[in-house]
């Protein structure tokens, strides 16, 4: 079973490709999947009816008991046959329904096939959560199908309504499923039904699940989404809104009924909502002019009928309910498909414009007549035998289910509903095929394929009417789970002169009378609606949605002020207040000591002064330089603490950052903009001081709390034994905590790409390459070739000479640092930063063209290859059977030079190196060269005269 | 074990000055503050990582060495700060290009939401009109009013102020 479900999704994935090659004929191929599933299912289904339930299980996450359970019980088998059978016919029908060259069918075909798969999965699921997943899949896919034509606002609204209503029900149901699964101690549905839990929690859970079923099956008060769903193409209406999705609710009720129909609330809820829906749907159907809408309201009515019968919880009712499900699937999908043919042949569905179709479309008329007769419950069709069984079941309902006077009352509701059904069936047939005094629409003869599907379905209604005996035994396989009632249920055309037959005759006669008196009925209905002032469900729903929307606007407006300083201030105040209160109330004093030496005092004094001056600075450049002072001071403090790697990296980063700041500062105004509000400044300073004091307090407490021996000291042994190096900090970065570092370089790649895209926007990073090609051709060759592109006044020969000499030295040093990092301070970060600084020197001396000469490669390539090398250094060990990122240590003899000690984590460090170089290159190209170029283009910066002359 | 109070003074000042700058509106100042705040927090790691000592490199002596793990974390933080700085500077430059200054303004869309809340209106995407029939084919007639797609948030605010 899992195979046929998966095949549907595979077919859905392939559908767009098929449609591209075969156009609408692809539907015929797609129809083979449900058809094949139907044929395959016949065997296991027959076994299921004989009591041999096929089950399948796919373990997924065994540790938390999550698995995919499927089962083919008699109920599941019947539903699966309906879903696949009707699905195959509807998909085939689509071949002729859509016009040649329709541009949307690639999506439609995929969604409809996936829907068929979800529906099949839903009806064969034997696990509460698997059932839920398929349930919501059908919801989402039905949203896509209803919104097939999003050009109309009403369609979008209809799709949203369906989505919101059914998802709401689905979520309520999920709550119930969890509780039920917990109470039962298993998620397997067959086990739950075999030994149902009891108690208040179970009662609540089952009622919650019923809310899901009611919303999905469009019962009052959720019924309004179903007529809106007629925005979907008619084959979808035939499938989703007749045979498949709306039946999911009925299926769920049928699934749970054997176990839970006696719990408090079950029968009142389902009988009342079901019968009320049946009557309201019927009344609304009588007032429609669009024959598709008429059928839609008829479906609402029929779903109420089905839920009431299936939910009644007696053997006879369950039997009749299942027969009705089958009957309804056959006749309602046939009728919808008939409407599709009429729509395609005449271009209208308005019954006031249709006339004389029984003459021009005789075959279709025959099929429609059979299906309609089945809907009205007229012999010799399945609809009649099923309805007889339902009436018989409700005649005994008071006795079988111990309902007392409510049993006959439910029977009255059923008969009234059936009467209305006959009336709107008559209205449908008269509307679609009758003769009126209007100009007849031009009728195009439909293709045989289009008419075939409704003919097959209607024919089956007729055959099934005569197949009472074989159907009875199969339906009893399900109904047998209930205790037997006052009579043994039976599907047959002739029971004798029974009360049920009398009620059938009553309903048909009454319905026909209603139709004959349709004008008077209609105006009476209008007056009644005017007088009652019952609010329409859709308007109530709209009001609720509007209220939710308004609430969200009010809450957002109050809390989301859109001001960055306000947000940050609140975050910082929380940081100060919440842990701060704990800090103050539990403060027991900490052990402090004075400075270790006078140098430390001097460094801190400089840092403190520089920091305060930075805040007070109004010049941008001054602020940045003072920031540099604090940074270098921090680096010195690192040295004093015994952290040479940190100090090295800090100095390099600080240098690189300051120059980068200057790159941008040179274009921004020299002063910060004026902020005259002194009170705001006081608040900022106050929050700043509080945060500083609080963090200082936390630092003291954290240092004081260091009582256990930290894990870091234990890194020494593994660092040498497994990491193969002496520098523990570096081994930590490239081996022990390598995943962290890998994440970090990924962030660097993102940041670098962000920088480049903010400066160059849509143009690629390699723009300046084309420039550099020109330079190579230029005759100017000084110390730096690319420097010829900057104005002579801005060139410095001394700087160019220094840059020329220093660059190779720095590059060699950077590579040395990267290799040495394993045992001495250094590593990929420090090495990469040195290389970045070397490139920066070239750029500063010779401009962006010189940078391109120094590094004639796209920064993205460097970044990407760095990330790939780093990833490979993790993946390769994993692929050859070690742990990801595990280091291998090799001592390779190289003759007279001794041995090379190679640790494979070096490759990770090379990746880090390349990523940092790539970041530097991107920053220099964007914030350096990119800003230069834009400045020159805007005339703010002087360019070399030669370049201006180049077109 | 005692804590070096001088380092704590440096932490307090760096964090205080850093947060004061971060609360500003100029992106340059925010970035300067961010870097300074980062330096202060890195020192917190240093203080919390125990006493000063020998560099955590095997075979450089017998005195007690410093804890290497916090150092590895701080090293990561330093490099990340570089990435953030570069990205922030690119943002500041772009802001200057577009608006002539690098101040972070209040969010325009949020202002719109606040105005809607004051006017007791639903959200802009809320569909209050229920006219029209669903159908699988065709499209709505384009109406001149009520179609606010493709306009700027600023224009919408102007329009709403006009209505109000």
Summarize the main sheet of chain B: none
* Overall pLDDT level of chain A: 88
Distance between the termini of chain A: 69 Å
Count of separate structural domains of chain A: 3
Strand order of the largest sheet of chain A: 1-2
How many domains of chain B? The number is: 2
Uncertain parts of chain B: 143-152
Structural class of chain A: mainly alpha
Q: What structural class do the secondary elements of chain B suggest?
A: mainly alpha
- Alpha plus pi helix count of chain A: 38
Q: Tally the beta strands of chain B.
A: 1
Low-pLDDT residue spans of chain A? 945-951
Helix-strand string of chain B: EHHHHH
Please state the oligomeric state of the protein chains shown.
Answer: heterodimer
How much of the sequence lies in strands of chain B comes to: under 5%
In CATH, the topology of the largest domain in chain B is named Helix Hairpins
Largest interface: A-B, 139 and 114 residues
Rg calculated over all Cα atoms of chain B: 27 Å
Structure explained in plain terms:
The complex is a heterodimer of chains A (951) and B (164). Chain A is mainly alpha-helical and 951 residues long. Chain A folds into 3 domains: 2-516, no CATH class; 594-704; 725-951, no CATH class. Chain A has 38 helices and 5 strands. In chain A, the strands form 2 sheets. In chain A, strands 1-2 form a two-stranded antiparallel sheet. In chain A, strands 4-5 form a two-stranded antiparallel ribbon. In chain A, strand 4 and strand 5 (899-903) form a beta hairpin. The longest helix of chain A is centred in the last third of the chain and has 33 residues, at 905-937. Chain B folds into 2 domains: 5-57 and 64-99, Helix Hairpins, CATH 1.10.287; 106-124 and 151-164, no CATH class. Chain B has helices at 5-22, 27-48, 68-99, 108-118, 153-163; one strand spanning 3-4. Chain B is elongated and about 85 Å long. Chain B starts with a strand and ends with a helix. Chain B has 5 helices and 1 strand. With 164 residues, chain B is mainly alpha-helical. At the A-B interface, helix 6, helix 24, helix 25, strand 3 and helix 26 of A face strand 1, helix 1, helix 2, helix 3 and helix 4 of B. Strand 3 (592-593) of chain A pairs parallel with strand 1 of chain B, so a sheet runs across the interface. Chain B: Belongs to the CPA3 antiporters (TC 2.A.63) subunit C family. Chain B: This is NADH-ubiquinone oxidoreductase subunit 4L. Chain B: InterPro entries: CPA3_antiporter_subunitC (IPR050601), NUOK/Mnh_C1-like (IPR039428). Chain B: Keywords: Cell membrane, Membrane, Transmembrane, Transmembrane helix, Ubiquinone. Chain B: Its main location: membrane. Chain A: It is found in: Cell membrane; Membrane.
């Amino acid at each position: 079973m899992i195979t046929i479900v998966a095949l549907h999704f595979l077919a859905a994935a392939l559908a767009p490709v098929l449609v591209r090659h075969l156009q609408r004929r692809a539907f015929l191929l797609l129809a083979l999947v449900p058809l094949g599933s139907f044929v395959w299912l016949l065997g296991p289904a027959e076994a299921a009816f004989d009591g041999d339930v096929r089950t399948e299980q796919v373990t997924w996450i065994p540790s938390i008991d999550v698995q995919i359970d499927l089962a083919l019980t008699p109920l599941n088998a019947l539903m699966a046959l309906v879903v696949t059978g009707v699905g195959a016919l509807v998909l085939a029908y689509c071949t002729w329904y859509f016009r040649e060259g329709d541009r949307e069918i690639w999506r439609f075909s995929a969604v409809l096939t996936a829907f068929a798969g979800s529906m099949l999965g839903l009806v064969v699921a034997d696990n509460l959560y698997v059932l839920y997943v398929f349930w919501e899949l059908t919801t989402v896919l039905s949203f896509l199908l209803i919104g097939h034509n999003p050009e109309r606002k009403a369609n979008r609204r209809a799709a949203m309504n369906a989505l919101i209503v059914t998802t709401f029900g689905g979520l309520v149901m999920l709550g119930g499923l969890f509780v039920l699964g917990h109470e039962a101690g298993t998620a397997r549905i067959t086990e739950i039904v075999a030994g149902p839990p009891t108690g208040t929690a179970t009662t609540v859970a089952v009622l919650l699940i019923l809310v899901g079923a009611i919303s999905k099956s469009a019962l009052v008060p959720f019924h309004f989404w179903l007529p809106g769903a007629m925005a979907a193409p008619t084959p979808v209406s035939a499938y989703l809104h007749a045979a498949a999705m709306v039946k999911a609710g009925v299926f769920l009720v049928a699934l749970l009924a054997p176990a839970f129909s006696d719990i408090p609330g079950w029968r009142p809820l389902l009988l009342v909502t079901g019968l009320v829906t049946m009557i309201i749907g019927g009344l609304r159907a009588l007032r429609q002019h669009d024959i598709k809408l008429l059928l839609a309201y008829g479906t609402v009515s029929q779903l109420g009928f089905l839920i009431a019968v299936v939910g009644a919880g007696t053997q006879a009712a369950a039997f009749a309910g299942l027969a009705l499900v089958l009957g309804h699937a056959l006749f309602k999908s046939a009728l919808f498909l008939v409407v599709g043919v009429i729509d395609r042949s005449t271009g209208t569905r308005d019954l006031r414009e249709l006339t004389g179709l029984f003459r021009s479309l005789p075959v279709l008329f025959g099929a429609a007549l059979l299906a309609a007769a089945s809907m009205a419950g007229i012999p010799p069709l399945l609809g009649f035998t099923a309805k007889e069984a339902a009436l018989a079941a409700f005649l005994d309902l008071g006795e079988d289910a111990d309902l007392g006077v409510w049993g006959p009352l439910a029977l009255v509701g059923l008969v009234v509903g059936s009467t209305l059904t006959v009336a709107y069936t008559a209205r449908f047939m008269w509307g679609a095929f009758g003769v009126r005094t209007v100009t007849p629409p031009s009728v195009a003869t439909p293709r045989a394929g289009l008419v075939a599907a409704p003919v097959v379905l209607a024919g089956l209604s007729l055959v099934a009417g005569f197949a009472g005996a074989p159907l009875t035994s199969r339906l009893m396989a399900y109904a047998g789970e209930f205790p037997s009632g006052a009579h043994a249920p039976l599907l047959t055309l002739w029971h004798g002169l029974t009360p049920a037959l009398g009620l059938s005759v009553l309903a048909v006669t009454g319905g026909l009378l209603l139709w004959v008196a349709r004008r008077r009925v209609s105006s009476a209905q209008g007056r009644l609606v005017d007088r009652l002032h019952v609010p329409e469900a859709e308007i109530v729903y709209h009001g609720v949605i509007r209220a939710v929307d308004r609430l969200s606007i009010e809450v957002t407006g109050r809390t989301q002020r859109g001001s960055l300083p306000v947000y940050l201030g609140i975050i910082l105040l929380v940081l100060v207040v919440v842990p701060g209160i704990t800090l103050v109330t539990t403060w027991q004093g900490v052990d402090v000591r004075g400075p270790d030496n006078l140098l430390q005092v001097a460094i801190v004094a400089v840092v403190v002064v520089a920091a305060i001056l930075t805040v007070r600075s109004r010049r941008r450049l001054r602020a940045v330089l003072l920031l540099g002072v604090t940074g270098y001071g921090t680096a010195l403090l690192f040295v004093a603490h015994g952290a040479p790697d940190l100090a090295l990296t800090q100095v390099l980063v600080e240098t690189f950052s300051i120059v980068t700041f200057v790159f941008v500062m040179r274009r921004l105004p020299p002063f910060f903009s004026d902020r005259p509000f002194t009170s705001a400044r006081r608040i900022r300073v106050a929050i700043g001081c509080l945060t500083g004091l609080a963090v200082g307090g936390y630092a003291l407490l954290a240092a004081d709390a260091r009582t256990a021996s930290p894990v870091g000291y234990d890194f020494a042994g593994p660092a040498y034994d497994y990491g193969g190096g002496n520098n523990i900090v570096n081994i930590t970065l490239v081996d022990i905590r390598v995943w962290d570092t890998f994440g970090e370089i990924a962030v660097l790649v993102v940041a670098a790409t962000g920088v480049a895209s903010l400066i160059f926007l849509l143009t690629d990073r390699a723009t300046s390459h084309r420039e550099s090609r020109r330079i190579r051709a230029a005759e100017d060759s000084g110390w730096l070739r690319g420097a010829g592109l900057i104005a002579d006044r801005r060139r410095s020969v001394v700087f160019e000479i220094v840059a020329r000499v220093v660059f190779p030295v720095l590059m060699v040093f950077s590579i040395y640092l990267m290799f040495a990092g394993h045992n001495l301070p250094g590593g990929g970060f420090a090495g990469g930063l040195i290389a970045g600084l070397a490139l920066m020197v070239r750029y500063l001396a010779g401009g962006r063209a010189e940078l391109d000469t120094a590094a004639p490669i796209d920064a993205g390539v460097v970044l990407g290859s760095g990330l790939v090398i780093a990833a490979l250094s993790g993946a390769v060990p994993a692929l050859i059977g070690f742990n990801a990122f595990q280091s291998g240590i090799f001592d390779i003899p190289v003759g007279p030079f001794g041995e090379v000690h190679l640790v494979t984590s070096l490759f990770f460090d090379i990746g880090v190196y390349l990523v940092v170089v790539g970041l530097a290159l991107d920053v220099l190209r964007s914030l350096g060269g990119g800003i230069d170029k834009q400045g020159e283009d805007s005339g703010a910066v002087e360019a070399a005269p030669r370049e201006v002359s180049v077109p | 074990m005692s804590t070096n109070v001088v380092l704590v003074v440096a932490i307090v000042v760096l964090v205080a000055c850093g947060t004061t700058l971060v609360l500003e509106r100029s992106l340059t100042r925010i970035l300067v503050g961010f870097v300074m705040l980062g330096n202060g927090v890195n020192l917190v790691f240093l203080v919390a990582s125990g006493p000063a000592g020998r560099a955590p490199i095997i075979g450089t002596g017998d005195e007690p060495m410093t804890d290497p793990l916090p150092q590895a974390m701080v090293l990561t933080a330093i490099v990340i700060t570089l990435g953030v700085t570069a990205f922030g500077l690119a943002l500041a430059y772009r802001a200057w290009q577009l608006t002539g200054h690098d101040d972070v303004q209040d969010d325009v869309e949020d202002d719109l939401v606040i105005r809607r809340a004051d006017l007791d209106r639903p959200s802009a995407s809320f569909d209050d009109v229920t006219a029209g029939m669903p159908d699988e084919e065709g499209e709505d007639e384009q109406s001149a009013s009520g179609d606010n797609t493709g306009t700027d948030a600023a224009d919408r605010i102007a329009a709403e102020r006009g209505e109000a």
